[in-house]
């Protein structure tokens, strides 16, 4: 989801975990603290128990290695007090994950090593690495293969448990689905938004502290941290499990303050904290479109990319003549048939791609590509470090008029929303019954 809204592996494999709601705190009897404070610094080579959950030990090493995954998703840009706060949240999430695995085992649900390895290998493939190379990469980030496989086990266990204990008891009526389809057709042409949200609950007594915490999160995300990672760790909405993604919604489906915030954002931007009933929301605009209307950004392009690289020690002044020659060659270019000759003239390379949607390009290039004619090219773009490149438009398949989602798609979405609500209540009950010792 731009503006670092997508976390590299968290979006693919992180388990469905939320944030402990003060209103859902354990009842008397367990004597569980509402917050956890880690005192002092520890030797990372010492496996000290941080918490014991129904007899299962969570060590400092477990916390640190899982924290390393979140920090890597944020580009390692989280420091100081923010890092400490994130570490506390990681511990809470590990406790939830442990409860989920334990509850699955209590219901005789076992996740085989082969299933875990299969998911792990797929994640490694997403990073274009072999499993051994991915394990080495994780170690370089301060994490481990063991940590990410435990995360995978937690997600698979919870999903299978919900499939047995929750999903069979969730019903969506045919009339409900038909009503949604009718509203969609009646709204054709209206603006709709794909929204990410981080919701932080508050009380009148804690309002100032909650707003300050929300402002810190906004600052971190605007500086390049992952919105998805923060949503998973901090959001108290049911959408925390999917990185805060609300999906496609129209303004009238949103609370007025959130609708107003979304309307004021450009794609990839994040709002200031928005006061809503019960707390504050941070809104990220992932994308926007018109309901059931063909979007020019869904056009599929055939492109040739011409790229020019520079030695690491070359200065901006030294590179300027080569960039100017590249720009001049592009202006004189006569279509895709001459792209290879242009690349040779400037010492560049050509890469072909025939299946690129305009909406998948960086926001700065989307408007440029939408207005190009066949055979024309973009101006040069890039940097000395990453190289300078240009895109030549070889063909375009414009989108057809968009149709309404199918009955099955709407049914599945409504069912998933209801399962998520029940899943949150299920996890709340597990927390209430748990015996957790903090060390």
List the helices and strands and how they pair.
Layout: H1 10-13, E1 49-53, E2 56-59, H2 60-73, H3 80-106, H4 113-126, H5 131-140, H6 145-165, H7 174-186, E3 191-201, H8 207-222, H9 227-234, E4 245-250, H10 256-263, E5 274-276, E6 279-290, E7 300-308, H11 316-332, H12 339-346, E8 349-357, H13 363-370, E9 381-383, E10 387-397, H14 407-433, E11 436-438
Helix pairs in contact: 2-3, 3-6, 4-5, 4-6, 7-14, 11-12
Describe the structure.
The two termini are 38 Å apart. The protein is of the alpha+beta class. The protein is 44% helix and 17% strand. Strand 5 and strand 6 form a beta hairpin. The protein has 14 helices and 11 strands. Helix 7 crosses helix 14 and helix 11 runs antiparallel to helix 12.
Quick structural gist:
The protein has 439 residues and is an alpha+beta fold. It has helices at residues 10-13, 60-73, 80-106, 113-126, 131-140, 145-165, 174-186, 207-222, 227-234, 256-263, 316-332, 339-346, 363-370, 407-433, and strands at 49-53, 56-59, 191-201, 245-250, 274-276, 279-290, 300-308, 349-357, 381-383, 387-397, 436-438. It is 44% helix and 17% strand.
Briefly, what CATH class of the largest domain? Mainly Alpha
Spans of 5+ residues with little confidence (pLDDT < 50)?
A: 1-47
- What is the number of helical segments per DSSP (H or I, 4+ residues)? 14
The strand line-up of the biggest sheet is 4-3-6-5
Using the CA coordinates, give the radius of gyration: 25 Å
What's the CATH topology label of the largest domain?
A: Triger factor/SurA peptide-binding fold
């Amino acid at each position: 989801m731009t503006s670092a809204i997508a976390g590299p592996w968290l979006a693919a494999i992180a388990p469905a975990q939320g944030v402990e709601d003060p209103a859902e705190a354990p009842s008397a009897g367990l004597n569980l603290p509402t917050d956890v404070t880690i005192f002092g610094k520890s030797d990372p080579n010492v496996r000290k128990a941080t918490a014991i959950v129904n007899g299962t030990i969570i060590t400092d090493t477990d916390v640190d290695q899982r924290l390393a995954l979140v920090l890597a998703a944020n580009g390692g840009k989280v420091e100081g007090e923010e890092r400490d706060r994130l570490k506390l949240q990681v511990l809470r999430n590990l406790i939830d994950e442990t409860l989920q695995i334990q509850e699955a085992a209590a219901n005789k649900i076992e996740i085989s090593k082969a299933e875990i390895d299969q998911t792990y290998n797929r994640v490694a493939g997403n990073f274009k690495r072999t499993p051994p190379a991915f394990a080495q990469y994780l170690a370089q980030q301060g994490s481990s293969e063991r940590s990410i496989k435990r995360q995978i086990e937690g997600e698979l266990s919870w999903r299978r448990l919900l499939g047995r204990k929750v999903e069979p008891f969730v019903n969506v009526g045919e009339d409900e689905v038909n009503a949604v389809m009718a509203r969609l057709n009646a709204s054709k042409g209206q603006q709709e938004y794909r929204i990410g949200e981080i919701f932080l609950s508050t009380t009148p007594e804690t309002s100032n502290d909650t707003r300050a915490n929300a402002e810190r999160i906004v600052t971190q995300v605007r500086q390049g941290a992952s919105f998805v990672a923060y949503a998973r760790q901090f959001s108290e909405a049911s959408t925390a499990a999917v990185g805060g993604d609300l999906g496609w919604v129209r303004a009238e489906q949103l609370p007025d303050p959130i609708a107003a915030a979304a309307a004021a954002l450009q794609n990839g931007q994040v709002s200031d904290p928005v006061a809503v009933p019960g707390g504050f929301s941070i809104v990220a605009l992932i994308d926007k479109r018109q309901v059931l209307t063909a979007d020019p950004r869904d056009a599929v392009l055939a492109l040739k990319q011409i790229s020019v690289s520079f030695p690491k020690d070359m200065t901006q002044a030294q590179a300027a003549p080569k960039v100017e020659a590249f720009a001049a060659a592009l202006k004189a270019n006569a279509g895709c048939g001459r792209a290879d000759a242009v690349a040779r003239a400037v010492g560049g390379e050509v890469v072909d791609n025939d299946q690129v949607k305009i909406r998948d390009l960086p926001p700065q290039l989307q408007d440029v590509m939408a207005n190009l004619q066949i055979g024309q090219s973009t101006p040069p773009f890039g940097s000395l470090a990453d190289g300078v490149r240009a895109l030549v438009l070889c063909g375009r398949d414009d989108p057809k008029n968009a149709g309404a989602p199918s009955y099955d798609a709407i049914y599945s979405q409504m069912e998933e929303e209801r399962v998520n609500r029940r899943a949150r209540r299920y996890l709340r009950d597990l927390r209430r019954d748990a015996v957790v010792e903090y060390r």
